[in-house]
Write a structure and sequence with these properties.
The N and C termini lie far apart (42 Å). It is globular and about 40 Å long. The chain is mainly beta and 86 residues long. A six-stranded antiparallel sheet has the order 3-4-2-1-5-6. The protein has one domain. The protein is built from two helices and six strands.
C-alpha cells in the first residue's frame, strides 16, 4: 500500500487559469498517478488546473490555500478556509 501524501499550498492565477503547483520533490511525484487526466508535469512541479466550476464548489480563489491528498489512491482536494457562501 502506498504512503498517504498530504500537502498544502496556495492557488495561483496563471494566464487567467487557477492552478496549483505542487513541487515534485516535496511529494508531488507521489501524486502523479492519482492525478492523471487533471494534471501535467511542468518543470519541477505537478500542475493541477482548477476549473471554474470546481473553484466554486471548493469556494476558493487565487491566493487561497488548499490541501491535496492521495488517500486510497485517489486525488483529493479541499480548501483550508473555504470562502463564505453569498
Amino acid at each position: 500500500m502506498n504512503e498517504v501524501i498530504s500537502l498544502e499550498g496556495p492557488l495561483e492565477l496563471r494566464e487567467g487559469q487557477l492552478v496549483l503547483l505542487i513541487p515534485l520533490n516535496a511529494g508531488g511525484s507521489e501524486l502523479i498517478d492519482c492525478a492523471k487526466g487533471i494534471s501535467e508535469v511542468e518543470g519541477e512541479f505537478l500542475k493541477v488546473e482548477i476549473p471554474e466550476w470546481l473553484a466554486g464548489v471548493l469556494r476558493v480563489e487565487a491566493g487561497d490555500r488548499v490541501i491535496v491528498q492521495n488517500t486510497h489512491g485517489k486525488f483529493g482536494i479541499w480548501a483550508v478556509n473555504a470562502r463564505p457562501v453569498n
